[in-house]
Amino acid sequence: MTHQAIEQHQLSQLRNLVSLLKASNPFYREKLGEVEISPEMSLAELLLQIPFTTKNELIADQAANPPWGTNLTFPQVAYSRFHQTSATTGQPMRWLDTPVSWGEMLNCWREVYRACGVSGGDTVFFAFSFGPFLGFWTAFEAANQLGALTIPGGSLSSKARVELILTSQATALCCTPTYAIRLGEVAREADLDLSASCLKAIIVAGEPGGSVPEIRSRIEELWPGATVYDHHGMTEMGPVSYPCPANPMTLHVLSRYYIAEILPPEGDGTTLPEGQGELILTNLFRHGSPLLRYRTGDLVDLTVGAACSCGTHNASLKGGILSRVDDMVTIRGVNIYPAALERVVREFPEIREFQVRVTRVRDMDELSVHIEIAEEGEGNTAKALQNRLQDHFNLRIPVKIAADLPRFEMKAKRWIKES
Fold it and tell me: Does domain 104-231 have CATH number 3.40.50.12780?
């Protein structure tokens, strides 16, 4: 669709959704009490009337109205799926879906697969333990609907997963960027030849990395013949974006299903249609458990309206998810985002894992980076990384050698705040 057609579709869907929620959803009935809809109203004008929704108010609502909260448009009998967030930044949120909204999320994931070149003739390996997080199940069931052979990695060890990827001749792999690297390293340790792998696509999500050149290069070096594809979504929102076929470092928002806005880091609290800042999303199809103007906490560079070289008018996220808005730390006046620091670390292929420790010293935050190096790594890696960090951030950040740092299957937790 053209940009104008997308906006008209979004406006029509949002009008219907607001009317439904004002009538039937206790949580949004109060929030939308002052919203007025007129026939001549534009999408921007309607959005400006709708207040933001935050994670904290959803968590508070569920705590006050257990177990599901009041953000349910229909009676509980209408819902057939339960999931919850990973709670990496606090209490988990519980989410229910109707068969209709579940089917729409599978449609979103099929768009992701199509963009990654995955179809019914593929064998897709899922390298994670299935739990209550939405992304596992939507990815698995959508691949199954495509007609692909779907292989759950379940409770297997990392080595067993690599062996099964090879023996099953899997052509696509779904996991986090961190775990794709970990699987590659395990294969090397076990002398498993990944050049014999049939993988053509590695679809990563769950953390920044898939749109970071240094991390992509590291994954593709470990998995010869495979191409990394980025994607992002949230349990409370659904599968949001797919990789641009023409620009590997760009994600496209599925604009038929989501309205994207930007909240600048500095301003009066008014969103912009594009630019860099916090991603604000409205889900247009999850009527039973909706989110309007949700503050995702993701820092992005959003472009809306312009046609991409791939041909779509869907909104674009240049560089994918750049970081989390609340992850930034200020060290001696310099703002540092975790994704920016990881880009520098990944320039050193001999670094197998790393950890960043934030320590409070005389009322100021200080950083130190701890690295685990492969046996064949050079002895001066710590010094070289320290120099590179100083060049990049204009800060002296101590780098120390460590052994047996934690490994992660899910979202990596490499930043440790010490009192």
Answer: yes
